[in-house]
Backbone:
């Protein structure tokens, strides 16, 4: 009787997780294995994949060094710029804002993140394009300013696109902060500035870490922002991948780059978690 | 401080406002506002390619989000009952589905499906009785599957969080009162997790509706709305694109607001 109930329980459990398990296997695990296999293959003469076992694709990685370089420099730089803009906003929302309007102000920060990144990014094509700000500058005599298709434009797009995602985790960690600590600090004679650097900032570091890690990881696979605002001059690994798969149809090389990208993401994630661990002590930090 | 905060909000909304404003421009210009008109909306909705892309996007978003909501909820419920080790494997896979960049998910799905097709299609051709054997290919199915992967992970996470905060005592009371597990689920558990499931569904719908990069890889010859918009941008921005973009923004906005209301309801209930 007991055993029969246990078997039934196990069957129900298996039935509940079976579709998810199948989906994860067929559309995550197997594709990843296929990609690994492709990465050791050769490009077929007509494009696509041809079976082989060679490390040539990985040896070729330096030919795309520019994409890796741009990604590994501009993604963290963009995340840090984001942080510089986001921190005061998160601080204002969590500490200074009138509680009555806080929820509305927080929602107003989140809403843009959930609307189409494609649309929001192309708006900047317009503003930075020759008929936008450069046109206005020309009217006051500053001629020939090029803004679009520069690293600056890509960084601007990154800050714009990912700002909400940086503000939220910092806001959450600042909101949880115990106000009595701030009062205690003031009572003990600390100036507001010392309170900020001695109490507020250290206690918000888990949120800062989460934000920087989240944004950096998402940026490593970014395609749209460099494509639209970098115009093929400032490109990321994502752009190289689209080029290799959809234009030059060099699937094995593309797979090798994709595998390397995932390795980079894993390393960044591990480093971020290690730092977060140190910063937060034993407190749990959710990166995802 | 005030000035800085205000300028950040301006920074966040000015580009969006500009797109919306120019969608109502009477002229063709994308830099000079020459008068108010809704003509571009009519033009956009009269564009058969665009409407087809919109229909594709809606169908794909609905199907992938619905599948993700059903299977993701089942997984969240089932994972509760799993042993620690199996649960850890699931957690890792779901985390991977969220952390792996979309561009890689797109590529991996493309590569795997093409490998499968190159094997299945000839096999199908040999055993097919008729003259024209069906050809498996990229299209709706591959986009739904790839979007569903991320969406399912999202739904599972949201529903799992809700389940974790659910009061066990009511569930126990229910079974003490001789309710069958199914009745307990239907009357006690489901009403409590339903808002989270719906929120997960709407977030998944929005994700699929807005996704460009995954669909770009696995769409084959099919066109979704973001793919159409992307292609149009490369031909040059017109007020018609602004009209479409405005419609896309409004649609995502409505879905997100609904999702947030549902998630908030969840919070206020758990606060009781």
Residues:
């Amino acid at each position: 009787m007991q055993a029969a109930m246990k078997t039934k329980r196990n069957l129900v459990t298996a039935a509940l997780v079976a579709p998810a398990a199948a989906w994860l296997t067929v559309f995550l695990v197997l594709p990843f294995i296929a990609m690994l296999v492709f990465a050791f293959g050769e490009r077929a003469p007509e494009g696509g994949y041809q079976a082989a076992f060679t490390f040539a694709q990985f040896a070729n990685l330096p030919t795309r060094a520019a994409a890796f370089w741009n990604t590994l420099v501009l993604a963290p730089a963009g995340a840090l710029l984001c942080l510089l803009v986001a921190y005061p906003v998160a601080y204002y929302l969590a500490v200074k804002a009138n509680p009555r309007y806080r929820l509305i102000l927080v929602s107003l920060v989140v809403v843009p993140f959930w609307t189409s990144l494609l649309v929001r990014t192309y708006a900047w094509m317009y503003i930075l394009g020759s008929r936008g700000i450069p046109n206005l500058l020309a009217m006051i005599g500053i001629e020939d300013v090029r803004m679009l298709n520069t690293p600056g434009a890509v960084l601007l797009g990154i800050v714009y696109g990912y700002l909400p995602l940086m503000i939220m985790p910092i806001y959450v960690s600042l909101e949880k902060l115990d106000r009595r600590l701030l009062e205690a600090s003031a009572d003990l004679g600390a100036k507001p500035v010392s309170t900020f650097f001695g109490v507020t900032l250290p206690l918000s570091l888990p949120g800062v870490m989460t934000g920087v890690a989240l944004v950096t990881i998402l940026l490593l696979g970014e395609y749209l922002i460099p494509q639209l605002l970098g115009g093929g001059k400032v490109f990321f690994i994502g752009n190289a991948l689209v080029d290799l798969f959809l234009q030059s149809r060099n699937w094995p090389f593309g797979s090798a780059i994709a595998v390397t990208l995932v390795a980079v993401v894993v390393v960044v994630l591990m480093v971020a978690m290690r730092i977060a661990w140190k910063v937060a002590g034993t407190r749990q930090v959710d990166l995802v | 401080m005030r000035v800085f905060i205000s300028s950040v909000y301006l920074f966040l909304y000015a580009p969006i406002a500009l797109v919306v404003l120019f969608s109502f421009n009477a002229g063709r210009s994308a830099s000079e506002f020459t008068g108010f008109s809704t003509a571009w909306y009519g033009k956009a909705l009269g564009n058969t390619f665009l409407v087809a892309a919109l229909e594709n996007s809606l169908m794909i978003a609905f199907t992938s989000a619905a599948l993700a909501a059903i299977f993701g909820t089942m997984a969240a419920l089932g994972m509760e009952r799993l042993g620690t080790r199996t649960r850890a494997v699931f957690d890792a896979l779901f985390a991977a589905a969220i952390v792996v960049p979309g561009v890689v998910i797109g590529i991996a799905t493309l590569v795997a499906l093409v490998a499968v097709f190159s094997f299945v299609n000839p096999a199908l051709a040999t055993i097919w009785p008729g003259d024209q054997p069906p050809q498996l290919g990229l299209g709706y199915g591959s986009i739904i599957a790839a979007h569903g992967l991320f969406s399912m992970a999202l739904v599972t996470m949201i529903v799992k969080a809700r389940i974790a905060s659910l009061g066990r005592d009511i569930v126990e009371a229910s079974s003490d009162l001789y309710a069958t597990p199914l009745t307990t689920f239907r009357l006690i558990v489901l009403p409590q997790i339903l808002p989270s499931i719906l929120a997960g569904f709407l977030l998944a719908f929005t994700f699929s509706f807005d996704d460009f990069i995954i669909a770009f890889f696995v769409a084959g010859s099919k066109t979704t709305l973001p793919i159409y918009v992307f292609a149009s941008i490369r031909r040059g921005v017109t007020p018609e694109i602004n009209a479409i973009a405005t419609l896309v923004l409004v649609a995502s906005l409505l879905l997100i607001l609904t999702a947030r209301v549902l998630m908030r309801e969840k919070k206020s209930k758990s606060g009781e």
